[in-house]
Specification:
two-stranded antiparallel sheet, 4% strand, mainly alpha, 2 helices, 111 residues
């Protein structure tokens, strides 16, 4: 299911509505919202429009291996940690074997 959002030549659906990102396109709550300590809060988008807390653009997967930590809050130190944190939600990997998971991580590292 990853390719639903991480699609196209840039491996993202962000910017698909307008190329200047004044309308970035769909935003998602990916299940990693921080609600305690230093919670995610509502803020304004680059164009000044309001953006709800916990709603994020889809980051590109290009160059993924060189951009840790992962997820919007840096809570996943490795690619596998990011996949584990989203297990059962977006990009569900529950049906993958251990070797398939390792192959997926290597593919993502190659982008």
């Amino acid at each position: 299911g990853c390719a639903t959002c991480h699609s196209g030549p840039r491996f993202t659906d962000s910017g698909t509505v307008s190329t200047d990102l004044t309308d970035p396109g769909p935003l998602y709550d990916v299940g990693t919202c921080v609600t305690t300590g230093y919670p995610d809060v509502a803020h304004d988008a680059i164009d000044g429009s309001p953006r709800a807390a916990c709603m994020f653009d889809t980051p590109s997967l290009s160059g993924l291996a060189s951009s840790p930590p992962y997820l919007h809050d840096g809570s996943a130190p490795t690619i596998m940690d990011a996949l584990e944190q989203t297990r059962g939600t977006m990009g569900d990997i529950t049906a993958l074997s251990g070797s398939d998971e390792a192959a997926l991580v290597e593919y993502l590292r190659s982008l």
